[in-house]
Amino acid sequence: MKFRNFLLRLADIFRFVIRVIKGFFIPPYEWKETMRQCYIVGNRSLFLIGFTAFIAGVVFTRQSRPSLASFGAESWLPSLVSQAVVRSLGPLITGLICAGKLGSNIGAELGSMQVSEQIDAMEVSGTRPFSYLVVSRITATTLMLPILVIFADVIALFGSYLTVNIFNKTSFQLYFYEVSVNVTYLDVFSSLIKSAFFGFAIGLVGSYAGYHSEKGTTGVGKAANSAVVISMILIFVIDLISLQFLNLFRS
Amino acid sequence: MRTTTSPLERTETETLPQVMASIRELRKSFGDREVLKGINLDLYPKENLVILGRSGTGKSVLIKCMVGLMKPDSGTINVLGKDVFALNARELNELRLQIGFSFQGSALYDSMTVRENLEFPLKRNFGITNKSELNDMVMDALEDVGLAHTVNQMPAELSGGMRKRVGIARTLILKPKIMLYDEPTSGLDPITAMEINDLILSMREKYKMSSIIITHDISSAKHTSDRIVALVGGENRLEGTFDELKHTKDPELEPFFNY
């Protein structure tokens, strides 16, 4: 019975994903609501992402410096930090912060709308709640995550630059020249594509959990909680898959 | 009274079908529990049909099936001559525009003001963007329910009775031909409940619509019904006017009428 329920749930998730993908390509498009959601996604996470990215940049630089210094290779610090930040640290920090902040928010918001029959009310008044509530949110997270990742990368590298400066006076131009020669287009684009998948996963999991929330306040709590936990796990899984895929490219 | 011209205007000469909605052999189970066991009923033009029954007898499930929110296990539902479960998504949406649904908990969109709640279905369904036209329609609907002064308030600032009335106004703004009320007086004090009952009657007169009223409130049933269908154990046990049913000896229904 449990296995049957598991399969039914999988089929339901599959149908949900197909509906979302159809919503991306088949009009009417929810431009206004999508723009509003993009603003909310950016506005809600910008400070938190900037703050954590700055700390990550500082900590990573400080922890890497002694190892490089022991080989007399301190000048490689910008190269090491920039590759770590652009390839992995920036997208991962942004993804995890957004999973916590946005995933729970989407799950709880849609969950409470489901529980209080607001989604049913939209459905019976012919207002197509799926595209209005779900597709717009998933589009917003998918579009905004790469932008937030660029922001996180820049802030983390700035934190790293300040840390390097404590030990060796380095000009801003020199530091970012070192960064730019060591980061390839493949690094940047793969990181942005990966973060778009992170955004899709966060929006999808939050929306699915909220849209299928069980009745009652515990249902809303469970929706918010599973939105965070599952999207965090998915972020690591996507990171791993993208790494394997990129290694094929690089080799 | 304001006058508005909109895609929602209905003409006086518009002919209504002989039966507004017809349900045949409707069955619905949740797991092993069969909630509806072969329900049959018809709704006639401009009629107020009350579905009376204890909690858990499937009354709300019945009207949710009528608008396609739930799918029955078997049976047919014809609304305004259309088989609800044979329609595609677009056709179902079109049909839903002719059916109003007042939810038990009002289901107001709590992130929007009262005005935005009422404008939402108009903008989404008919693309009405003209501010003065929208304002006229919103104010008309709110005046109908006596709550024009709440137009800029948030749902959280309203009392339970006010929320119910705003919920009804949001539904009536689409000028439905059939109105479904899910427990319209539950959780309200007797005076507010009577105001809602009066509102149901006055809206029927104004919009010439047929209504199904789901309730376990016998005074609401008495006040609003032209005909009552009593559900017991997922079946329609009795049918008739309030006066015909009030002397019933059915052990499940007698307590309702000897309140």
Domain count of chain B: the total is 1
Which sheet architecture does the biggest sheet of chain A show? Answer: none
Largest sheet geometry of chain B: 6 strands, mixed
Question: What average pLDDT do the residues of chain B reach?
Answer: 89
DSSP helical segment count of chain B: 9
Q: What gross morphology of chain B would you assign?
A: globular
User: Using DSSP, what is the number of strands of chain B?
Assistant: 10
Helix content of chain A: over 70%
Spatial gap, N to C terminus of chain A: 46 Å
Low-confidence stretches of chain A: none
Lateral arrangement of strands in the main beta sheet of chain B: 6-7-8-3-9-10
| Overall radius of gyration of chain B | 18 Å
Largest interface: A-B, 14 and 24 residues
CATH superfamily of chain B: P-loop containing nucleotide triphosphate hydrolases
The poorly predicted ranges of chain B are: 1-5
Question: Which of globular, elongated, flat, extended, rod-shaped describes the shape of chain A?
Answer: elongated
Number of domains of chain A: 1
Folded structure, characterized:
The complex is a heterodimer of chains A (251) and B (259). With 251 residues, chain A is mainly alpha-helical. Chain A has one domain (30-250). Chain A is 88% helix and 0% strand. The mean pLDDT of chain A is 92. Chain B has one domain: P-loop containing nucleotide triphosphate hydrolases (Rossmann fold), CATH 3.40.50. In chain B, the strands form 2 sheets. A 6-stranded mixed β-sheet of chain B has the order 6-7-8-3-9-10, sandwiched between helices. A 4-stranded antiparallel β-sheet of chain B has the order 2-1-4-5, covered by helices on one side. In chain B, α3 (114-126) packs parallel to α5 (160-172), α4 packs across α5 and α5 runs parallel beside α6 (190-207). The longest helix of chain B is centred in the C-terminal third of the chain and has 18 residues, at 190-207. The termini of chain B are far apart. The interface between A and B is medium-sized, with 14 and 24 residues.
